[in-house]
From TrEMBL:
It catalyses: indole-3-pyruvate + NADPH + O2 + H(+) = (indol-3-yl)acetate + CO2 + NADP(+) + H2O. Gene3D superfamilies: FAD/NAD(P)-binding domain. This is indole-3-pyruvate monooxygenase. Its cofactor is FAD.
Amino acid sequence: MGSCKENQQENPQQSNCGSVQGPIIVGAGPSGLAAAACLSNHGVPSLILEKSDCIASLWQHKTYDRLKLHLPKQFCELPLMGFPEDFPRYPTKFQFISYMETYASHFSIKPKFNQAVQSAEFDSGFWRVKTQDFEYISKWLIVATGENAEPVIPEIGGMEKFQGPILHTSLYKSGSDFKNQRVLVVGCGNSGMEVSLDLCRHNANPHMVVRNTVHVLPREMFGFSTFGIAMALLKWLPLKLVDKVLLLLATIILGNTDQLGLRRPKTGPIELKNATGKTPVLDVGALSQIKSGKIKVVVEGVKEITRNGARFMNGQEKEFDSIILATGYKSNVPTWLKGCDFFTKDGMPKTPFPDCWRGSEGLYTVGFTRRGLLGTASDAVEIANDVAQLWKTNKDCRSSCNSHIILLK
């Protein structure tokens, strides 16, 4: 690939290529904002490219209205600025969005919106990042698109036959749209549980498919955050012993979930989360609705979708008015990051936590720890420290960057 100068010589009328002072950050969600703020704190400029029209587009456009943070706010803060003191222990979706907007404003973070990255590739000492209408060049690339960039849509036979709506939870807003309907919810993670609970509260009749094993834990134990208890115990006890303590307490508080069709995995909740990224369900009320029969648990997987409902693996067929896919999200990194073997085919860093934040050739990642916003904050701090050291000591790099810097407004 040629330089910007060479491209402009070939196409004199076209000036759609230029270098960026500081790192290019792909993604303006919590991860991208945290990285930019930490860099700014070190005096290092950066540029965020965001495919959507706003910051935190997943939170703003693809979450349901009743969503709250699953963990207490002290575990969800971005670096350098905490939540307002008057926010509740578990901030709502709208409060969290407000917090991120204030965060961006406080650190003067101004992403370039509607810049969908089509490709990013390392070439001759620089990262070349192409969007639909520009090519940005930098010594450093920070991948901040995260683990949940794109919805996972399963391929289930017969979906085109169904007469009612089929939608992913990324399009679900409120159970008020499904009042008095029989709704099939495919998936039993936090989203599946909360959507089913929301449907109940709007007089719908949800049937939740629980094909795989799942850990359900109370959000709080004896007035304390379950996550907080786990973090405290891990400072003193081995991980597997902490898992045993959590499961013992969960059984005392919730009862035996196996009897409800919610079979627990053999691997403990924290160990499973660290190994696979599968998050335990933190119950906020769905379990009581399952016990009362208002949420029906379907332990058979869906074999196919029919015109009026679904046929299950045991051959039984049931009618439904709507189908909601609570099937989660995935990374989209493999679709645009080229010539890089740092990521797996699933778009996750091959290097495990806590060293997954740094690749080679000036490549960094933030938000891929499988440890939520706490992991995001840790990544952002590490990246900023590393880049700042290079920024301040590598005078040759800075002078070469400054020789063809463009002003991006």
